Amino acid sequence: MTDFIDSSLNTAAFLLCRGFTLKELQYVHKSRPARFLFVFADPDNDIQLIKQDFFSDNPGVNLSVFLNYRKELLTRIAEEKLKFEKP
């Protein structure tokens, strides 16, 4: 099984809408500014092809579902940041 890694919040939300599984949220605290990497399981190596749909005129996902996944990811990012940042 291969993994697909991307740092785009919107791409990650889109892939969740399309049914892919987020395996891991990696906090890259050494970079400035700190950023997150979204790691998806890509058993059939087809995420690159499906990712192109995101930029098409008709991405084929429900906008409210996309926005809900985006909010969920932002919440997970905030939780992860708390683990690494000093109060």
Task: Explain the overall architecture.
With 87 residues, this protein is of the alpha+beta class. The protein has one domain. Helix content is 45%, strand content 23%. It has helices at residues 9-17, 47-54, 63-84; strands at residues 2-6, 22-28, 35-42. It has a three-stranded antiparallel sheet. Helix 1 (9-17) crosses helix 3. The protein is globular. The relative contact order is 0.24.
Secondary structure blueprint with pairings:
Layout: E1 2-6, H1 9-17, E2 22-28, E3 35-42, H2 47-54, H3 63-84
Helix pairs in contact: 1-3
List keywords for this structure.
87 residues, alpha+beta, three-stranded antiparallel β-sheet, 3 strands, 23% strand, globular
Describe what is shown at a glance.
The protein has 87 residues and is α+β, with helices and mostly antiparallel strands. It has 3 helices and 3 strands. The protein has helices spanning 9-17, 47-54, 63-84; strands spanning 2-6, 22-28, 35-42.
Cα(first) to Cα(last) distance is 38 Å
Mean pLDDT: 86
What is the count of β-strands? 3
Q: Which range best describes the helical content: under 10%, 10-25%, 25-40%, 40-55%, 55-70% or over 70%?
A: 40-55%
Number of domains: 1
Which descriptor suits the 3D outline?
A: globular
Strand content: 15-25%
Low-confidence stretches: none
The count of helical stretches stands at: 3
